[in-house]
């Protein structure tokens, strides 16, 4: 049951998740026509020529088709990850594809890269004036009918399409909602796959990691991708792990699909710490973006204090609304933010 205080702040929680998602797209589309950037500066960062006025951004999946960038800039995001984009337009997996559990502050989805395709997204980006209001990351993935053997062709095609409009690329091979996609993390695929992408673009490449990798495999992926020349990592995508019996809690805990929100927080934090410790000085200026279970300003500041350069949100926008971005910016001026200020001196 949704608490009245949360329902007052986020009235869409009384609607079915799929309907709320669809209506939010309509609202954001209307807002985009008159919205203006309103980006607060706190814990700013300049990396590889990209200036982040603040380190809090939205994760891939929020604005899949780059249809609502003006709206998100008006809410104060520090950066935006659009997509996942595939070469050809792609429909969602068979329903149900999204649900939520308000008590656990968790979102379940098995969408499967639904998007309007590379041409649509590229057209939207070409309409914008450069430089963008914030850095723009384009999350790219393969169409579901493309085999893993040929997957690199889809990714190279997308790099060609967005080379002059993306500030950086997010390589998504970690979604649990495209059959067999995570197999690309295996050493027999990953080394050659990343090498081809690295040789094909001058833009930074960020690898989005799965929280379901075993600890040893996670470290191996870090080492392999570091050697292949990636410029950073996003930790992490949604998880297939389940807290409770999937049968009694379907569809939220349906066996297929990924979960984000609070159930992911502990694993996401652990993997952030593991990456910082494992990479050590080898990390250099490579970017670490933390995502998963970030639901309060304190969570944002904790991720930054632990070594993340940037933080992303998704579920927090559902349970707290876009006002969460302003809430964090206000908290950043308070004593809650003293640890981050000390870290950045």
Draw up the topology in text.
Layout: H1 4-9, H2 17-32, E1 45-47, E2 50-52, E3 56-63, H3 69-75, E4 79-85, E5 98-101, E6 106-109, H4 118-126, E7 136-140, H5 151-162, E8 168-172, H6 187-198, E9 205-209, H7 215-227, E10 232-235, E11 258-261, H8 262-279, E12 287-291, H9 297-305, E13 310-313, H10 315-319, H11 323-331, H12 338-343
Helix pairs in contact: 2-3, 6-7, 7-8
Description:
This protein has 345 residues and is an alpha/beta fold. It has a single domain (4-343), classed as Aldolase class I (TIM Barrel, Alpha-Beta Barrel), CATH 3.20.20. The protein contains twelve helices and 13 strands. It has an eight-stranded parallel barrel with strand order 3-4-7-8-9-10-12-13, surrounded by five helices. The chain has a three-stranded antiparallel beta sheet with strand order 5-6-11. The chain has a two-stranded antiparallel ribbon with strand order 1-2. Helix 6 (187-198) packs parallel to helix 7 (215-227). The longest helix is centred in the C-terminal third of the chain and has 18 residues, at 262-279. It is globular, with a radius of gyration of 19 Å.
Considering the chains and any ligands shown, give keywords for the structure:
single chain; 345 residues; alpha/beta; TIM Barrel; 8-stranded parallel β-barrel; 3-stranded antiparallel sheet; 13 strands; 35% helix; 18% strand
Question: In a few lines, what is going on in this structure?
Answer:
By secondary structure, the protein is of the alpha/beta class.
CA radius of gyration: 19 Å
Q: Tell me roughly what share of residues is in helical segments.
A: 25-40%
Mean pLDDT across every amino acid position: 87
What is the tally of beta strands? 13
Tally the structural domains. Answer: 1
* Spatial sequence of strands, sheet with the most strands: 3-4-7-8-9-10-12-13
């Amino acid at each position: 049951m949704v608490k009245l205080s949360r329902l007052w702040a986020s009235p869409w929680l009384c609607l079915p998740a799929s309907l709320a998602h669809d209506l939010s797209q309509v609202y954001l589309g209307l807002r985009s026509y008159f919205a203006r950037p309103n980006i607060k500066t706190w814990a700013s960062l300049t990396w590889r020529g990209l200036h982040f006025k603040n380190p809090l951004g939205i994760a891939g999946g929020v604005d899949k088709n780059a249809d609502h960038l003006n709206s998100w800039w008006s809410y104060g995001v520090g950066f935006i990850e659009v997509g996942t984009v595939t070469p050809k337009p792609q429909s969602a997996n068979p329903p149900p594809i999204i649900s939520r559990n308000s008590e656990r502050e968790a979102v379940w989805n098995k969408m499967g890269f639904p998007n309007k395709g590379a041409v649509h997204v590229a057209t939207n980006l070409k309409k914008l004036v450069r430089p963008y209001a914030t850095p723009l990351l384009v999350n790219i993935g393969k169409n579901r009918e493309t085999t893993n053997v040929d997957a690199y062709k889809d990714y190279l095609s997308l790099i060609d399409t967005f080379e002059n409009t993306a500030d950086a690329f997010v390589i998504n091979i970690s979604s649990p909602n495209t059959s067999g996609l995570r197999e690309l993390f295996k050493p027999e695929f990953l080394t050659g796959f990343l090498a081809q992408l690295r040789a094909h673009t001058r833009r930074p490449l960020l690898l989005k990691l799965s929280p379901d990798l075993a600890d040893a495999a996670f470290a191996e992926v870090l080492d392999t991708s570091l050697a292949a020349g990636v410029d950073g990592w996003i930790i992490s995508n949604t998880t297939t792990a389940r807290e409770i019996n999937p049968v009694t809690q379907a569809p939220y805990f349906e066996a297929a699909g990924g979960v984000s929100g609070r159930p992911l927080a502990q694993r996401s934090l652990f993997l952030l710490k593991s990456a910082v410790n494992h990479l050590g000085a080898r990390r250099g200026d490579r970017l670490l973006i933390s995502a998963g279970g970030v639901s309060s300003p304190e969570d944002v500041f904790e991720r930054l204090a632990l070594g993340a350069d940037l933080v992303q949100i998704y579920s927090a926008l559902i349970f707290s609304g876009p006002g969460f971005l302003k809430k964090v910016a206000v908290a950043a001026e308070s004593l809650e933010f003293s640890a981050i200020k000390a870290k950045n001196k």
